[in-house]
Amino acid sequence: MVPIGVLVSGRGSNLEAILDAVDKKYILKGDVRVVISNKPGVGALDIARKHHVQCVVLDDKGVRKLDAEYDRKTMATLESHGVTPKDGLIALAGYFRILSPQFVEKYHNRIMNVHPALLPSFPGLDAQKRALEHGVKIAGATIHFVAKEVDAGPIILQGHVPVRDDDTVDTLSERILREEHRLYPEAIRLFTEGRLRIEGRRVMLAV
After folding, report:
1. What are phi and psi of 136, to 5 degrees?
2. What is the rounded distance in angstroms from the CA atom of residue 172 to the CA atom of residue 132?
3. pLDDT for 41-91, tens place per residue?
4. Nearest to 91, CA basis, from 107, 73, 80, 77
5. Tens digits of per-residue pLDDT, 7-34?
6. Taking a C-beta distance cutoff of 8 angstroms, is the pair 88, 78 a contact?
7. Pairing status of strand 202-205 against strand 196-199
8. What pLDDT does 207 receive?
9. Across the strands, what pairs with 32?
């Protein structure tokens, strides 16, 4: 059983998709041990409690954006719940902090993130807005391993979402979010079943 820690900052819709997949036995070989939030009182904490998953709040108010000491506290919390660099998995589910290089290196290829665009296009913030402004016909979502550079790690899964002529940022974002909810549990399932193999920048799927 792969111990999983989920880092959150907001409403927690991707967290709920992951926990639903565990509860419904779609993810059989992964166990969400802890949900860590850098913000108190967010919806993701209520979702974790509803699913009887332990929550920890490490309030980052006043902490600088890249802070190795804050990340050391986060890593210590993960390890205290069994989510170790040797056999654990970390899922970033709407986590609004950039991880320090030390964090990424320690959990090398054991941190996943979701991004609302077809990487390497539109990394960073406001991806849906920039996709619309650019006039793309296909948008989507990407699940990837986390690297030291933002949104630059090996791609695990992608799903496409057609862009409609009457789309707004909100309508496009809503459809992309539904695709995120489909892809993230699938990526975690494949990881926990030992079916992902990384070769350079490519993530290969073992049958």
Report:
1. -65, 155
2. 9
3. 999 999 999 999 999 999 999 999 889 999 999 999 999 999 999 999 999
4. 107
5. 999 999 999 999 999 999 999 999 999 9
6. yes
7. antiparallel
8. 76
9. 4
Instruction: Quote the CA–CA distance of 50 and 197 in Å, as a whole number.
Output: 34
Distance CA 39, CA 26 (A): 29
CA 45, CA 57: separation in Å to the nearest integer? Answer: 9
What is the tally of helices (H) and strands (E) in the chain?
A: 6, 9
- On whether the CB atoms of residues 93 and 44 are closer than 8 A, the answer is yes
Give the whole-angstrom CA distance, residue 145 versus residue 164. 29
**pTM higher than 0.90, yes or no?**
yes
List Cα–Cα distances, 97 to 61, 89, 113, in angstroms: 12, 18, 12
The mean per-residue pLDDT over the stretch 118-137 comes to: 97
CA distance 114 to 111: 11
Sign of CA dihedral 5, 151, 137, 188: negative
In sequence order, the 6+-apart residues with CB closer than 8 A to the CB of 115 are: 123, 127, 141, 142, 144, 151
Residues serving a catalytic function are: 115
Please give the Cα distance from 97 to 47 (Å, whole number). Answer: 20
Residue-range domains of the chain with CATH: 2-205 (3.40.50.170)
Q: Which tokens is 5 given?
A: 């820690």
